[in-house]
C-alpha cells in the first residue's frame, strides 16, 4: 500500500506520514524560537510595544553582568566537558580489559543515565553541602567543629558543585560511546599493529586514539551544548551571585515588570545561537569524518 | 544531491507545519467572556451546579510542606465530598511563573479554556495581571462567604496600594517575624531594629543572612530596612517617583553592602528561598530565620523544620504585614469551580483550622472577627486563647504591623538589590 515504484510518489507518501509529527516538533520548536526572537526585539503588544528595535541587545552587550555570566557559563561547560572526557577515556580504556565481566560492568556504567540531572544536583547538595552528609561525618569524626569549617563545595563562587554534578552524570555517557568503539572494530587493527611490532604507545597514537576521537569529540560536543543551556543544575547548585546565562534569563523572565521580558528572550536567543553553532560544528565535523572514512 | 533535496523537503514540511500551527489561533474570545458574565450575574446555586464535576487547577507557591498538605488534604477532601470538585494543586517556586503563563496565553490568543483556574496571589503579581486586563471578575463580593470579609478596611480592600475591586478574594493574612533559638540566645541579646541587627551581625560574623529577593520574605526584609532608613512608612504610600526612591534607597544599599562581610558565607551567596534559610537555621549555620505565620511556628517545629526551642519575635520598629488573596484568570477553564474554592476557603471553621498551628499552618485569618456570631465567635475566642510561646501575641503583632509599599516599589527594590548589592564586589 505504501509502496510505489515512482520516486516522487514515494517521497510524497513519506512526507505525508511525517507531517503530523513535524507539525508538533517544528510547530512548537520554531514557534518558540520565533516568539523569543520577536520579543527579544522589544515587540510586546501586551504592554503596547509594537516596534522592533535592537535596544535590548545593545544594552545586553554593554552589560558587565551579561559577560560575566557568559564566560562563567562557558567556563563551567568547558571544565565539565574536559574533565568528563578525560575520566571517561581512562575509564573506557581500563574497562575494556574486563570484557568477560562486560555485562555487569556495563550496567554499573549505565545506571545513572536515566537519573534526571535535578536529582543528581540535589544528591550533590545533600552530600557536599556545608551541613551535608560528608560534612556531618567529618564533624562526627572530630575533623571540624562547625559546619562553616567544611570547605564550600556547593553554591560556591567557582561552580565546583555544578561541575561535579555534570562530571558525575556525563562521564558514563561519554565512556559508553567511547567504549563501544574500543570494543568493536578497533581491536583487529590493534592486533595487526601489534603483529607488525608496534609498541603500546605507537598503538595508542596510530590506532586507538584516532579511532575513538570522533565519538569522543561528538559526545563531548553534546555534553558541552547541553551543560551550556542547562538550567536546573546551576539553579540548585549555583551561587546566587554567580548566575549562569540560563539563570540570568530566568531571573529576568520572572521580573513582574514586563519590560524585562525582552531581556530574558534576548539572553535565550544568545544561548540558542551559541548552541546552533555547536550543532553546525558537530554536523560539519561528523560529515568530514564520514568522508575520510570512506 | 540526494541529501540536498531531502533537506529542502524537510524545510518545506516545517513551513507547512508552521503555517497550519499559526492558523489554529484566534478562536471566539467572546464565547468565553459570555460564559464568565453569566456566572457573575447568575445565582450562587447556578455556580455550584456548573462547578460540579470540574477540576480546579490551583497554581500556588509550593515552598511549604505544611501549606501543601493542608490544601491537598483539607480543602481537597471537602471539595470532593461536598461539591464534587477535584482540586489539582500546581506548585510554583515563584508566583510570577503563573502570571507569565496567563500572559503567554493571552498573548497567544487563548482567551478561553486557559490552564490556570486559580492563583494564590498578591502585590506586584496582582498588579501585573490587573493592569494587563487578564483577570476575571469582579467576583469577590459575589461569594456568599464574603459577608465575613471587611473589604471596606483599606488593608483588605487594597493590595500593595492597588484597589482590588473584587478581582481577588482574600484568603488569609501574614506578618513578617524574625525567628531565633532560645537555646542559643537570650531575649535580652536580640536586636530590635536594623541598626542593632547590623552591630549584632558584626559581632557574630557568619551567623546572619537573609533569603535573596525576589523571594517574598527576602524582599520584605529589604522593604522594612528601607522604611527604617528612610524615616518610616508614612511617606511611601504615594505613587512611585524614581528620584525620591533612589535618594533613600542608596542608604539601603550602603547598609546591606557594609553588613555583607559579616554575613553567612561573607555575602558571596544567599539562601534562595525561605525554606533554605530555615534549613540553615535548623542546622545551626545561622542564628536567625524568618516566618510569615501569624499563628506562630508550632507547625514547622512539629515537622522538624525548626528546632523545638525556636521562638518568633518582631522588631520594635515594626514589620510588614498584609493580606493574601486568590484570583481567577480571565481565560480560566473552570471559573465556577474556582469561585467555589475561593468561597470555601473563607468558611470561618476552615479559616480557624488553617490558623491553628496544630491543624493548619498558623496562617492569619482573612475574615473579620467582628462579623462573626454564635458558634464561630466561640471558636475564634478558643483559637485566640491557644497561642503559646511559639507565637507572638496578636496584639503585639498588630501594634507593630506596617503596611506594604505600593506595588511599583517591589521591582525597583528587587532590581536595585540585584545590581547594587548582590553583584557588587
Automatic annotation (TrEMBL), chain A:
GO terms for cellular component: plasma membrane. One of its GO terms (biological process) is transmembrane transport. Keywords: Cell inner membrane, Cell membrane, Membrane, Transmembrane, Transmembrane helix, Transport. SUPFAM superfamilies: MetI-like. It holds the Pfam family BPD_transp_1. It comes from the Bacteria. It is found in: Cell inner membrane; Cell membrane. It is a multi-pass membrane protein. Residues 70-282 form the ABC transmembrane type-1 domain. Its main location: membrane. InterPro entries: MetI-like, MetI-like_sf. PANTHER family: INNER MEMBRANE ABC TRANSPORTER PERMEASE PROTEIN YDCV (PTHR43357). Belongs to the binding-protein-dependent transport system permease family. This is ABC transporter permease subunit.
Automatic annotation (TrEMBL), chain B:
InterPro entries: SBP, YnjB. Keywords: Signal. Pfam families: SBP_bac_8. The keyword Zinc does not apply. Gene3D superfamilies: Periplasmic binding protein-like II. Residues 1-21 form the signal peptide. Transmembrane segments: none annotated. This is ABC transporter substrate-binding protein. It comes from Cohnella luojiensis.
